[in-house]
Design a protein that fits this description.
Layout: H1 2-25, H2 28-38, H3 46-62, H4 66-84, H5 91-113, H6 120-127
Helix pairs in contact: 1-3, 3-4, 4-5
């Protein structure tokens, strides 16, 4: 049961990043650049955002460099909360802010406890 819960937890944390990264690749690219620019973030950073979301999400799913990826995505989630969702007068933005905090919390737990099994990290540790 532990292995199933560890895998399910990683997949559930990762899916938001994978889906978000994919959505930015297509029709959402220009809109996301505009949204970033409206918050004072250069749209030229969008390829890095996509790489982090998509690459980091897939790495979490596989359990590959899990602790480092979880730390990077936690920092990204906290930064996004502060930069894009700190309008507490808007209830939806407050909810988005808290969602990002919750995701960061889950990622910090993953960074602390590791990916569990099955994962690439666990397989590599057994091979050493």
């Amino acid at each position: 049961m532990d292995k199933l819960l560890q895998l399910a937890g990683r997949l559930l944390l990762a899916q938001i990043f994978v889906v978000s990264g994919i959505s930015k690749l297509g029709a959402g690219y220009a809109g996301t650049q505009g949204y970033m620019a409206s918050a004072g973030v250069p749209g030229a950073l969008l390829p890095l955002v996509i790489a982090l979301e998509l690459g980091g999400g897939l790495a979490l799913m596989a359990g590959f460099y899990t602790r480092w990826v979880a730390l990077a995505l936690a920092a990204f989630s906290l930064l996004a909360a502060v930069m894009f969702h700190a309008n507490f007068a808007d209830q939806m933005q407050s909810i988005m802010f808290m969602k990002n905090l919750a995701i960061a919390g889950g990622l910090l737990l993953l960074a602390r406890h590791g990916p569990g099994e099955p994962s690439v990290d666990a397989s590599r540790a057994r091979a050493e």
